[in-house]
Amino acid sequence: MEDNILIYVRNITIGFPNLKTKDIQNVVKNISFQVKKGEILGVVGESGSGKSMTALCMMGLLPKDVLVKGSIYFNGIDLLGLNEDDLRRLKGKEMSMVFQEPMTSLNPSMKIGRQVEEMLVLHEANLSKEERRKRTIEALGQAGLSSGETIYDKYPHQLSGGMRQRVMIAMAMICKPKLLIADEPTTALDVTTQAKIIELIKEICEVNGTTIIFISHDLSVVRKICDRVLVMEDGNLVEEGSIEEIFTNPKKSYTKKLLKAIPIIDLDNKIEKQNVSKEFKLLKPTDSEINSSPINNYKLDSDRILEVKNLNVYYQDQKGLLAKETMTHIVKDVSLYVKRGETLGIVGESGSGKSTLSKTIVGMIDNYDGEIILPNIKPQMVFQDPYSSLNPVKKVGWILEEPLKLQTKLKKEERKERVRQILRDVDLDEKYADYYLSELSGGQRQRVAIGASLIVNPEFIVLDEPVSALDVTVQHQIIELLKRLKRQYNLSYLFISHDLNVVYQICDRVCVMYNGEIIERAPIRELFVNPQHEYTKKLLKSVI
Amino acid sequence: MNTIKLIIKKIASLFATLIIVSLITFLAFQVIPGDSVLISLGTNATEEAIEQRREELGLNENVFVRYFKWLGNAAKGDFGTSSQYHIKVSELIGERLSITIWLTIISVVFVLLISIPLGILASNRVDGWIDRIVVFLTQITMAIPPFFLGIIITLIFGFILRLFTPGRFYYPAESFNKFISFMVFPGLAIAIPKIAMVVKFLRSSIIRQLDTDYVRTAKSKGHTRAGIMYNHVLKNALIPVITFIAMVIADILANSIIIEEVFGIPGLGRLLVMSISNRDYAVVQAIVLLIVIIIVFLNFVVDILYQYLDPKVRIK
Question: DSSP of chain B, one letter per residue?
């Protein structure tokens, strides 16, 4: 084997035994690849393509009953041939991993410092207690947590997602491993945080001479930091090549499909830019109209489906009898409107107040002042995570039928027919009425959630991060579905997202929220071509 | 600072609970049929004698006046006089309470000492043979009522193995060792079904924790199985179990009433049963109040324990 090869994966097949049918389902099918020392290798593919399974296999983190064939050489050692103890000595010290879910990957009842320090306790037992503490604070500092001293005694729930991911990185890097596997490390984070975390991973590994395997479904991220890419589909390695080869000259149709699903925002096109400016000028008066319109006009303009005027939303911190009550001002003096047939996007990071705004609009929060003017039919809402927002112990048919039982006087047969029709509308087979959510994929679940919101014939739907939890290709399909339904049912959307790429694909106009305020509003193209506010520029920069 | 605030709050709610419960029990005895005066004097008593006794006991006054009088005295530790034994309730309860508390403590010790290691052992290798045996045993023992277990234990340990003499109870003052070695058996009878419940609960709690992301992180750090169990899983798994154990302790206290009958132990439970059938209100009220105090206090201890176990609770 060549000296500069760190990882050599040879003919790996990973099979999950199916308890019902007794056969083995292969999730990774006979793949081989190599990783050179010091390189950053990207692994892309949709969920279920086997990319995470391959990573977990290298780390020896697969469940016991999983069948693995083939060999993985790490620095010349066959990992699959090692006994549990020898493999354990490598884990954390020689190779470590950062996971997708920073919110749950840390032990909730253990202090941050102890969790990071544990690495040293396990692998560098000769260090004294003081040395360990010093190293831990250093590592936290290196991961951009400058106040390492205070973070040391914090618990995970006291930190934001981005900070927790930094803790995970500090933990993974404290023993200066030869290999870092980062499995979708930024998927759960905000765009601006995403960019910072990716920079951090790249930097910290450069300093320590660590090789990175970077797993992601986000091709634009992979393009930004990787040297080489593997494309995986359905357990197979479809294509392998340098970043340039893959992105400029993809050979396989699957790779092309993946690349197509990345929204391309071509801002260099000057002709388009001019057109946009015209469009912007045409729309601009309507935009300023809202601010000058008389506030006490309770009647909704016939072309508007929603009007929000000077909305302030507060969150009351409940501290019990003895503590002083405090109010947090979450949405600050927001005015906006949605025209019939329009999709208004609201963009912002988590904590910007965009979700609170949407919840207030659909009537889930009472503690507000200002005006919300809506048509008679209540707006429906679709949430980010259909699995936790729909009842998991009920069948899809029941979930779809329930709003009809509550809000209409349809007979049982009519309701069933309507359910079948809605399933067809969201491109699901009628048979899914008898399925449980756990038997559906993420995309299919979101189709059910959209169906449930459509079933009472609303005119206006609020979509709160409806595609954030989905793969790029599925995202694309759901967005196309939403567009089609909008035409078919003559709907208007309020579309909330942190993902500017997604917003670009579906929205007509956008409001950018920052710290509870709308700091910029513009037609979509205008926003991308000519952002006014510094924060918007920053947001755009972290996307493109 | 927060802990002190919490303690003050809890004590305030403890008093509120006590007042409400005492009022309810006081009123309950006004509506149930039966008369303590009739029972203590016998059915042949003359009208005058009954009326005189009623006047003595203050039973002719308004219910609420009597309640507040009782409450005022209770606050001073005076729960009145037993109508069946004609001695002070506080004296009557004193020694019996300590016996019942000993019985409860012995049962709780059994529960903790056996169920926690067993729960860990079973969940360490789910569906392994140890796990299967433990699950099988918990399934069976959970279904046996304590009084029946008491009979079986008396039969096996008392008559066959002769490890104790059934019915021969020793007061702690007579011989503390003999007292404990007798109490072990009723304690076991109460503990066995509870052990089964706690094992089942802890086992599923640990299994749930083993499936979490932070355990995967711990594995990726190069922890041993045992290291993961003791450093990461156990503390998180015990958080819900502690609430459950507090409920179990309250239940053990309630169960001791029946078991005391089976084993012939002169504890609070036996006194309660006799006092109810003799309409000895003063005694019943005092016992009910005592049990409520103990249960509310247990919950209070659990809340304080949570402060130390669950950092999310601590912040509030």
Answer: -HHHHHHHHHHHHHHHHHHHHHHHHHHHHHHSS--HHHHHH-TT--HHHHHHHHHHHTTTS-HHHHHHHHHHHHHTT---B-TTT-SBHHHHHHHHHHHHHHHHHHHHHHHHHHHHHHHHHHHHTTTSHHHHHHHHHHHHHHTS-HHHHHHHHIIIIIIIS-SS-TT----TTT-HHHHHHHHHHHHHHHHHHHHHHHHHHHHHHHHHHHTSHHHHHHHHTT--HHHIIIIIIHHHHHHHHHHHHHHHHHHHHHHHHHHHHHHT--SHHHHHHHHHHTT-HHHHHHHHHHHHHHHHHHHHHHHHHHHHH-HHHHH-
